[in-house]
Amino acid sequence: MSTADEKYELITRRLQEVLGGDTIKAILDEGRSPKCYWGTAPTGRPHIGYFVPLTKIADFLHADVEVIILLADVHAFLDNLKAPLELVTHRANYYEHLLKAVFTSLGIPISKLRFVLGSTYQLSKEYNLDNYKLCVTVTEHDAKKAGAEVVKQVESPLLSGLLYPGLQALDEEYLGVDMQFGGVDQRKIFTFAEHYLPKLGYAKRAHLMNSMVPGLAGGKMSSSDPDSKIDFLDTPEAVRRKIKKAFCEEGNAEENGVLSFAEAVLIPINQLRHERQKGDALLEAGLGDQKPFVSDGAPEGTVFTIEREEKFGGSTHYQSFADMKADFISKALHPKDLKTSVANGIIRLLEPIQQQFKTSEEWQKEEKLAYPDPNAKDKKKKKEKVYHPPPPGKGKNAAPSAPSGDVPVVAPGPEVVHAATELAKQQPETPAS
């Protein structure tokens, strides 16, 4: 049984920032299990940056935290129409399939997670009344400032973007949690919630923030920028191509998405796999290749191996990310070797997730509905030909036209010939003169 201090260490390790840590400690000292939620708005296709928070959730479960996964469909619609209303439901379904596949592949038990769709409570009378109360309390300046890092910024912003931070704050109350977990890009929304929820008579919650993995070209990894990210369904060839093009200047560790992914994803997952090997009671078997990201024969305590052929100096085994980063800065670790090892690790992580996608017809169906091909053309139904007989004397079987100026001569039919013969028989014979 872990102590309160040990649980707090698990909850907060590898986080960039914690707001309200004393609140979490007080709950743990009482012997209660803290309640936490992590939310995501189902907009663009999720990218591998999601591995960062999803892997961290394993620490929460180890510390007996009750975790809610919020699929914020209403938020997705409000964020400058990044998810049109007719697609939101399908995208929420797609996200749920994907998130469960990632958790399962990592061995994180989804039976201990509760998935909630935002619209199941965000359209209620009580929730909307609280939203109106916020609207008469929050200034435009504060609402705009709170969403600056999360809500899409445009020259002429929509009113919906100003509502976004308030709704995210209210989610803490309506989900009944003690703390909210998100990326450090959410910090302004978190401080907004801490300031305004008490004005409605609700408790101030704690907030946990993980670091953000830079995009492949530097800057933020974004679902709307295909060149900055790797999708969960990208092929191995696409992964290697994107990693090869990624910004990874020799000796430069700043805004380096390749190096940061090793720190924030591969090394923590490596630790999970080591814990499972030692008999961790919480973690399940996981899917696919569960071998840690270290070479056979690596020294005890190795967190990551850069694999190289012997003719290029052989593999290097790192005992910590700090050692690995120092080698990169000193140029002892070449970008090409780093990229190769990280790409191999990403491909191994994605393989079991993609296998689940290939075997799930329901997930494949939702993927097509959630992200329809923008280049697909609607197939126009061919009109059925209806035969209209030509008028008399027209058409291909009609008699040829007479030369211009002549009266056409039409041969009499058999009925006409017969009628004329009978008529002739009835006429009296005229005596010859």
Automatic annotation (TrEMBL):
Residues covered by region (Disordered): 359-433
Composition-biased stretches (Basic and acidic residues): 359-370
A GO biological-process term: tyrosyl-tRNA aminoacylation
Superkingdom of origin: Eukaryota
InterPro entries: aa-tRNA-synth_Ic (IPR002305), Rossmann-like_a/b/a_fold (IPR014729), Tyr-tRNA-ligase (IPR002307), Tyr-tRNA-ligase_arc/euk-type (IPR023617), Tyr-tRNA_synthase (IPR050489)
Localization, UniProt: Cytoplasm; Nucleus
Keywords: Aminoacyl-tRNA synthetase, ATP-binding, Cytoplasm, Ligase, Nucleotide-binding, Nucleus, Protein biosynthesis
GO CC, any one term: cytoplasm
UniProt-recorded Gene Ontology molecular function terms: ATP binding; tyrosine-tRNA ligase activity
Chief site of localization: cytoplasm
Biased composition range(s): Low complexity: 394-403
E.C. designation(s): 6.1.1.1
Keyword ATP-binding: yes
Catalytic reaction(s) noted: tRNA(Tyr) + L-tyrosine + ATP = L-tyrosyl-tRNA(Tyr) + AMP + diphosphate + H(+)
Keyword Cytoplasm: yes
Signal peptide start and end residues: none
Enzyme class: ligase
Family that this chain belongs to: Belongs to the class-I aminoacyl-tRNA synthetase family.
Protein name: Tyrosine--tRNA ligase
Record organism: Crucibulum laeve
Source taxonomy: Eukaryota, Fungi, Dikarya, Basidiomycota, Agaricomycotina
